[in-house]
Amino acid sequence: MTVDDVIQELQGYASESTKKILMRHGAPEPIYGVKVGDMKKIVKKIKKDHELSLELYKTGNSDAMYLAGLIADEKQITKAQLTDWATTATYSMISEYAVAWVASETPHGWNIGMEWIDSDNEKIASAGWSTLSNYISITPDKDIDIPAVKALINRVIKDLQGSQNRVKYTMNRFIICAGTYVHGLTQEAMKASEQYGKVEVDMNGTACKVPVVGSYLQKMVDGSRIGIKRKQARC
Questions:
Q1: Residue 209 and residue 220: Cα distance in Å, rounded?
Q2: Which residues in the chain show pLDDT less than 70?
Q3: N or C: which end of the chain has fewer CB within 10 A?
C-alpha cells in the first residue's frame, strides 16, 4: 500500500466522536479520529513496512503517525529515526505509546530509553520513561540490568515531584512496570511510591486518572501476575 492508499483508508474510518475524544487528550489537527480497532484492520493488510511507516509519520496526521508505530519494523528502524519520531511527536499518545512501543522492541531499546530520559524536552523524556517501562515488560529478567532498574527507581523517588507533567506520569508508570514485570521488585516499587507520594498530573480536563501504584500492584499480586512478561510492547 502507498501512503495515499493508507490515508484514504484512514479517512474511511473517520469518527467525529473519536476525534473529539482524542483532541481532548491533546491530539492536534490534522486528525480523522480513527479507533485503534479500525487501525488494526489496516495493520492486518500491511503487516510491517519500514519505509511506509516512515512516510506515514512524516505526514503529521495524528492517526497516520499512530499507525506508523503499529507497522514499524523494529529490526530496521534506526536510533536516529526513533529520536526524530520522539522529537516530532505531536502529543502523548504518539510519544509515550506509538514511539515508545517501537523503541522498546528494538535492539537498542534500553540504551535509547536511557538517553531520552535525560532530555529537557518533555515529549522526549516521557517517551524515554515509557520506552524503559515497555522494555522491562517484554525482556526476560536474565537480560535486564536489575541494579540499573533499582537505580532508576531511586531516581524516580528523588526527581518525580519536580519533573514535567507527562514525565511525572511516565515515571509513575515505570514504577508500576518495575513492580509488575521484574521478580523481586514489587515491594521496592510499593515503597518507592510511598516515598514520592501522590502524583498530580494535568490530564487535560479528561476523566483519566494517574494509577495508584500500591493498589495496582496489589491487584497484580492477588492475581498471580507478577513477573509475567508481555509478548510484545505494541497492542
A1: 19
A2: none
A3: C
